[in-house]
Fold this sequence. Notes:
Elements: H1 4-17, H2 20-28
Amino acid sequence: MSNTNNDTSDIKKAAEQADSQQIEKNLQENKPFDAPEELSEEEQTSFIDDELRTDK
């Protein structure tokens, strides 16, 4: 169940609070957008628990 009124309100708020200078700065940075980000050890979790796998 979704409430489109809240969605529209959230989008409107985000648009009103957008910082154009920060957006421009982010767009000017030459970050490799197709390369994966390095994850911290805490963030590196497998999607499937190896002990529960049945395909081994």
